Every structure is written in C-alpha cells, then in structure tokens.
Backbone:
C-alpha cells in the first residue's frame, strides 16, 4: 500500500527539481500528457469501483494514452492544426464523466452502509 | 498483489513527475516572461527619451547654424557695400556657395516627379516598375548637363559630394531616407532644362519606356533651402 504513495512522492520530487526547460512549442505536449495521465488514473479508480478493473488494460491504457496524446499534439504542430485541442476536449469530457461515476458509486455505497 | 503495487507505483511516479514538472515549468515561464518584458520596456523607454533629447539638441543646433549663416551673409553684404572692389569677389563667392549648396537659392526652374509605375503586366517583374536610385541620378545628371544651377531631391539639396544609394524600398540621399514619389527640383533656364530632359530618346523617354511615371513641370519660382 505504501509503495505507490512513495512512488508518487518520488515522482513529484523529481519533477520539482528538474530545471530543464523545454521549447515553447512542446508545452502543449506536457499539458496533454498530464490530462491523459489523470484521465487514465481516474478511469482506473472508476473501473475498480465498478468491479471491471483489469491490470493489463489499466497499465497499457496509461502509457498508450499519453503516447497517443503526444503524437496528436505533434501532428497538430506540424500540420498547423491545433489537434491537441481535440485531445484536451476528449480527455476533459472523460475526466468529468469518470468523476461523476465515481461520485455516484461512492454515494450509493455510503447510502447502503447507512 | 505485490505485482499490482509495483505497477501502481510506476504509474503514480510518472503521473507525479509530469504533474510537478508542468507546475514547475509554467511557474518558471511566467517568472521569466514578466521579468523580461519589464526590463525591455524600461530599456526602450530610456532609449526613446535619449533619442528625443538628441533630436531636440540637433534641431536647436540646426536653427543656430542657419541663423549664424544669415548673420555671416549680412556681414558680407555690409562689407560688399563698404568696399566696392570686393563686390565682384562676394558675387563669385555666392555663386560658388550656390553650387556647393550652402546658400539659399530661389529662381525659375523645373520640377520632375518620378513615381512608381501603376500598371504592372501580369507575371512581369515589379522591380522594373519601381523608381531606382540610378533613375534619379540619371535625371540629376541630365539637369546638371542642361545647365541647372542648383538641384534638390524632395527638398534635400544635392551637392558635388552628395551620394544617392538604394536601400530596399527607399532611397537614401546623404543619409536621409526618401520614398517614392521623388521630386527633383532644379533651378536654371526652364526651357533648357525641359528641352534637355525631353529630347528624343533621352531620359524621360527611357524612363517612361521602363514603365515609370515621369511628370515635368516648369516652375516660376523654386526656393531651395541651404544644406545643413
């Protein structure tokens, strides 16, 4: 149980102490990657609550989503179309959906207990 | 279960890294951009103030110079009146000053307006329809050859050591920039000057053949300011 939290803290520290600055153009990739990571994490939590969680799906989804988002942003930069907006939109919608489902499931569980 | 928590820690490590890194990146960027623009603004303000100051000083000095020259001339006139035998010398001096460009000159003359051609044939190089520095030079040479006593481009007096250079879309005359249309004014016998320019196959014909708008006008009085 403590290992994942330790991982999170180590990741946060590495990120905070990395002073390597990337070009302006690639700032979009970063935001996309962040959104993808959040989306997948929340998706995992939701799946767990709905008892449809699968380890393999979760881990591949995490890295695959990040990569896909980066590729989309890359294509967008080179085609002159703001394709990263599509990713932001998709992930944003999914983020809200996941949070809504998590909230409902939690509420239902809490009601059952009470 | 052991395998699960290792996987989770890797996933959370990556998430944490991305989160912290973008936080850090945005913070740094905001700091640097705000700092830079402030600095730049200050510097620009400073330079601008300096420039205005210099320009004012320049203008004052120019005015002073003009006044001084007027003074010198009035003194010379006085001297000329006093010494009759010096009259001839002063006249000569004035003539040379006129040629060198340090004296105000007024009299009959012509003005030649050179403008870029309006009509460019499709696919033709527009460079051929623009007034170039050598076109202006051509006109000036022709005017001088026809006996012009004083010549100016857009009011800027031309002297024996003036230079005209081509700087992209503008033309620099003794360091001052001018854009089309260029008005070359010359003082001299209008008949001679006009005739010289409009001789068959001469300057005007050549320029018009190249697609440049040339307008020659005889003027009753042209006043050319002295060179600063």
Residues:
């Amino acid at each position: 149980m403590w290992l994942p939290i330790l991982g999170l803290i180590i990741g946060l520290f590495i990120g905070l102490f990395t002073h390597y600055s990337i070009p302006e153009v690639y700032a979009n990739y970063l935001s996309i990657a962040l959104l993808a990571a959040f989306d997948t994490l929340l998706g995992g939590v939701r799946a767990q609550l709905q008892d449809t969680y699968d380890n393999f799906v979760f881990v591949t989804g995490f890295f695959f989503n990040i990569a896909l988002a980066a590729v989309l942003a890359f294509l967008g930069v080179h085609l002159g179309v703001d394709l990263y907006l599509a990713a932001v939109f998709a992930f944003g919608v999914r983020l809200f959906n996941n949070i809504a489902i998590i909230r409902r499931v939690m509420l239902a569980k809490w009601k059952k207990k009470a | 279960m052991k395998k699960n928590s290792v996987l989770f820690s890797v996933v959370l490590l990556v998430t944490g890294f991305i989160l912290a890194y973008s936080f850090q990146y945005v913070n740094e960027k905001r700091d640097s951009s705000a700092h830079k623009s402030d600095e730049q603004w200050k510097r620009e303000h400073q330079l601008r103030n300096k420039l205005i100051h210099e320009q004012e000083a320049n203008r004052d000095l120019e005015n002073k110079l003009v006044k001084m020259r007027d003074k010198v001339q009035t003194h010379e006139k006085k001297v000329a009146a006093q010494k009759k035998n010096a009259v001839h010398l002063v006249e000569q001096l004035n003539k040379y000053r006129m040629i060198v460009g340090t004296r105000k000159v007024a009299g009959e003359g012509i003005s030649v307006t050179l403008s870029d051609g309006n009509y460019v044939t499709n696919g033709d190089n527009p460079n051929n329809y623009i007034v170039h520095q050598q076109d202006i030079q051509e006109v000036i040479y022709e005017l001088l050859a026809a006996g012009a006593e004083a010549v100016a481009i857009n009011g800027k007096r031309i002297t024996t050591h003036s230079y005209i250079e081509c700087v992209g879309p503008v033309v620099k005359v003794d360091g001052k920039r001018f854009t089309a249309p260029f008005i070359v004014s010359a003082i001299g016998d209008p008949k001679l000057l006009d005739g010289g320019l409009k001789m068959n196959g001469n300057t005007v014909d050549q320029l018009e053949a190249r697609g440049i708008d040339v307008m020659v006008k005889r003027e009753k009085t042209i006043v050319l300011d002295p060179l600063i």
